[in-house]
Amino acid sequence: MYIKKVKLENFRNYDNIEIEFKKDFNLIYGDNAQGKTNILESIYLSAIGRSFQTKKDNELIKIGKDRAIVEIEYVKKDREGKIKIEIADKKTFYINDIKQSKISDIIGNINIVLFYPDNIDIIKGGPAERRRFLDIMISQLRPNYIHLLNRYLKTLEQRNTYLKQIKFDNKSKDMLEIWDERLAELSDKIYIYRNEFIKKIQEKIKEIHNKITNCGNQEEEIEIKFISSGKNKEEFYKNLIKNREEDIRKGYTSTGIHRDDFDILINNKKVNIYGSQGQARTSVLSLKLTELEIIYEELEEEPILLLDDFMSELDENRRNNLVKTIKNNQVFITCTDKILVEEKNNTIYHIENAKLKKGN
Q1: What is the pTM of this model?
Q2: For strand 16-20 and strand 80-87, is the pairing parallel, antiparallel, or unpaired?
Q3: Taking all residues of the chain, what is their mean pLDDT, rounded to a whole number?
C-alpha cells in the first residue's frame, strides 16, 4: 500500500498544504523545527488515531486557530480510500467521508511502522512502552483486539474505584467477584493475542538481528521473553483473589495483563540493564523490522515505513543493512541533510517554514 496525498489545514505549523507522494522513497529534509516530523505525524495519526508526539490533541492545532484538519488519500491492492480527521474540542474521524463513531474504526485501514529516536524507550523505558509497541502492532492486524483492550481498561477502572470504596466507605468485598470474573475473562482473551504475536516475533527476530549486525556466526543471540501474570482465565482469576486484600489496601489492582511485559536479551543478558547503547538501538531496529515483516505476512501487503530522523541514529553499516531489508515498502524519511538511498527510487522534498518543495 502507499500514501497518495496528504492535505493539512491548521495542523501544527501548517496553514494549508497539499502534497502528493511517490510509491518508493520520499526524503524530506530541512533544518529543525520546520515541520518535517509533522508530516509523518499526520500519517501516523490517520493510521493509529493518536499522535506519537503528544497526548494533548489541542497541541495538534496551529496556534491561534480553533480546529485542524488532516486528510490522507491512500491506495491498497484492493481499493483506494481516504481518512479524514477533524481536530477541535475532540477528534472526529471519517472514512471515505462517512463519519465514524469511534477511534478504533479507522485502525487497520492504513498500516504503518514507525521508527523515531524515542523508540529506544521500548528497550530503556518501562513496561508500558513495550505494551504500547505490542498493542499498536496487534491492533492494526486484529480489529477485535482494541475493543477487548478498551473493555478491559474500563473494567479495571471500575474495579479500582470499587477497591477505594471498600477501603474508605466500607463497601462489601463480595461485589469484587463481578469485576474479578470480568477481568479474568478479558485477560485470557488479550493474553492469547499477545502471546500469539510474541511467538511471531520470536520466530523472526533472530534472523533479522543477524542480518543487521552482520553476525552470521551468531556472536549476538537475541531473544524475546514474554512476562505475564497468567496464561489462562483460571490463573488470572486465582491471582486476583490472591492479591485481593493487598489491592484493597493499596486502592488499585496490582496484577493482570495491564502489567504485562517482555524482556529483550542478547546472549542471555537483558539489554535494558547490561546492553550497550549500540545493542539497544540495534535491538529496537530488529524489533521494528520484525514488526514490518509480520504485518506484511499477515496482510500480504507491504506497510508504510516512517523513519523520523532515525537514519542519524545509526552508523553507516546499520543504515545500509536497514535499507537492504526494505523491499517494496513506501518509505518516508525525515532528516536535516539531503540523503540519497542507493539502489532506490528517491523523491526529494525540501522543507522550510512549513513550505514543501519537491526536487530541491
Answers
A1: 0.92
A2: unpaired
A3: 92
Sort 5 into a burial class: Cβ within 10 Å, 0-12 / 13-18 / 19+. middle
CA distances from 62 to 42, 198, 342 (A): 13, 39, 37
For residue 315, give the C-alpha cell: 552508523
Buried b (16+ CB within 10 A) or exposed e, 80-100: eebbbbbbeeebebbeeeeeb
Local structure of residue 92 (DSSP, 8 states): E
Q: Is residue 289 pLDDT above 50, yes or no? A: yes
Q: Are 341 and 27 in contact (CB under 8 A)?
A: yes
DSSP assignment, residue 107?
B
Q: What is the spatial distance between Cα 249 and Cα 239, in angstroms, rounded to a whole number?
A: 16
Q: What is the pLDDT of residue 215?
A: 54
Go through the chain and tell me how many residues it has: 360
Cell numbers that stand for 330 in this block = 513506501
Query: Three cell numbers at 131?
Result: 505494551
CB 283 within 8 A of CB 123: yes
Backbone angles phi, psi at 61, to 5 degrees: -90, 135
